[in-house]
Amino acid sequence: MTKQNVVPVEAVAAIAVAAVAGSSPLFPYPPPRAYGRRKYLSHLELGGGRIGAWVESMKASSPTHAKATAARPSGDAAVDEQSAWVVRHPSALNKFEQIMSASKGKQIVMFMDYDGTLSPIVDDPDSAFMSDAMREAVRDVARYFPTAIVSGRCLDKVINFVRLADLYYAGSHGMDIKGPTRPRHAKARAKPVLFQAASEFLPMIDAVYKALLERTKSTPGARVENNKFCVSVHFRCVDEKSWSSLFEQVRSVLKEYPKLRLTQGRKVLEIRPTIKWDKGKALEFLLESLGFSDCKNVMPVYIGDDRTDEDAFKVLRDRGQGFGILVSKFPKETNATYSLQEPSEVKDFLVRLVEWKRLSMKACSKVQVA
């Protein structure tokens, strides 16, 4: 890996033009709509049964948890289920030639989650480092295709992890977006991308973060992370016997903030503004910003492993354009078309994509010379 392609976070953080306070986004998008108060208060009902449902969901969403494992068939039944799931969501590596055939004459645009996709899921969120080989693969992909990282992490954190300058970054589940000042790809050269979907929620998010730090400090292993436009409460290192009390601690804080909603990911509870904005909306915004919103000859590819990535998978399925790739070792309901088992397979897919592009360009050059 060459030094010029991995840059200090300070340099990457300057990849977009600074926003003037109170100004409109450079690429206007329909303003996010707030959901009704009643709808999201339902997530925080006082009944113990509701708490139990959340805890059961917390268990079931953990691929390595005993309950999640027990819920899956074993023996021949497990093999049959896995086989049936792979038929519905075949490996993107095994179907690589078919995917490339479908992309013929189209501009591929790459979107990728970070945690669990480009880096392994780890106990300490601050230690979710991507490998040098993965960084090299992502850097090479960005040379040939518009490439975006769409993460639940705050923008600065995901930039600090990736450390590549030529990418588009969407932090806080797409609520905080920046792009390079000099986009490499033709359709994206008009203006730099800068967009924040929920700026008015920043003081509220900060207050909730501080309240959750105080409220959860009695729960060993709980980790509260401020992702700028959302707050994440990690319970990966919390004893299962304490999950109910942790959820109650989170809920007790959120009762005071009806404009925030509670969602769930892989061993994490996430608090977000009640606006209609998610990774799917971020994908649509970036396609529009790149000049591909109304194009028929574009092939968006989204790779992710989490529940929050399903919003992006669904957008692609509904558009009938491009496809999602779910990163998972276990069968699960998904709107993705293809699958990969783990980040190492994501790297292999990216490497093959770059090799395919280089060979295609070489073949075109020979035809032109002839």
TrEMBL record:
<comment type="function">
    <text>Removes the phosphate from trehalose 6-phosphate to produce free trehalose.</text>
</comment>
<dbReference type="Pfam" id="PF02358">
    <property type="entry name" value="Trehalose_PPase"/>
</dbReference>
<dbReference type="InterPro" id="IPR044651">
    <property type="entry name" value="OTSB-like"/>
</dbReference>
<dbReference type="GO" id="GO:0005992">
    <property type="term" value="P:trehalose biosynthetic process"/>
</dbReference>
<dbReference type="InterPro" id="IPR023214">
    <property type="entry name" value="HAD_sf"/>
</dbReference>
<keyword id="KW-0378">Hydrolase</keyword>
<dbReference type="InterPro" id="IPR003337">
    <property type="entry name" value="Trehalose_PPase"/>
</dbReference>
<dbReference type="InterPro" id="IPR006379">
    <property type="entry name" value="HAD-SF_hydro_IIB"/>
</dbReference>
<comment type="pathway">
    <text>Glycan biosynthesis; trehalose biosynthesis.</text>
</comment>
<comment type="similarity">
    <text>Belongs to the trehalose phosphatase family.</text>
</comment>
<protein>
    <recommendedName>
        <fullName>Trehalose 6-phosphate phosphatase</fullName>
        <ecNumber>3.1.3.12</ecNumber>
    </recommendedName>
</protein>
<dbReference type="InterPro" id="IPR036412">
    <property type="entry name" value="HAD-like_sf"/>
</dbReference>
<dbReference type="GO" id="GO:0004805">
    <property type="term" value="F:trehalose-phosphatase activity"/>
</dbReference>
